[in-house]
Design brief:
Blueprint (H helix, E strand, L loop, with lengths): L12 H18 L5 H14 L4 E11 L2 E12 L3 E6 L6 H14 L3 E6 L6 E6 L7 H4 L2 E2 L4
Parallel strand pairs: 3-4
Antiparallel strand pairs: 1-2, 2-3, 4-5, 5-6
């Protein structure tokens, strides 16, 4: 699987490639139309089968001036290196993108995947937080189709 964005390598591309392969398998097996939780459970089973260490529903604290002011729940964090956010939506919008970017900031993790299982042709986006390895056009969202 090609895990380059616009010809550039990015951090954790081997791990994200494995996760994307798992997501492809889940989508090929289940198709579109289920709730997000169904895909999260299936992806966890697939990642476990591929020996990818992960945690599910990870609480991320949001701090402001040294005080915790809220928290987020990340769907999956793989090997403490890649944040995985799942959707089962007809379309992704800027709110979904902002959610992943906020999760990356709150967690301190540099790489995030946004996986959408809600369409017959699934989509994914790779987010690199604070990276100087990619051009600005690829910084916010480099899309890799896994279909």
């Amino acid at each position: 699987m090609n895990t380059e964005i616009e010809g550039h390598h990015y951090p954790e591309q081997d791990l994200t490639g494995k996760i994307l392969e798992c997501a492809f398998t889940v989508h090929n097996t289940l198709g579109a139309g289920f709730l997000e939780k169904v895909y999260a459970n299936a992806l966890a089973i697939e990642m476990h089968a591929h020996h990818i260490p992960f945690n599910v529903e990870v609480a991320l604290k949001v701090e402001y001036r040294g005080s915790v002011v809220g928290d987020y729940i990340a769907d999956i964090i793989a090997d403490q290196r890649v944040l995985v956010e799942l959707k089962a939506s007809a379309a992704l919008d800027s709110v979904h993108v902002a959610q992943v970017l906020n999760y990356l900031r709150a967690s301190g993790i540099r790489v995030g995947l946004l996986l959408n299982f809600g369409r017959p042709n699934p989509s994914s986006s790779v987010f690199i937080c604070g990276s100087t390895l990619l051009p600005l056009s690829a910084f916010i969202c480099g899309c890799i189709a896994f279909a």
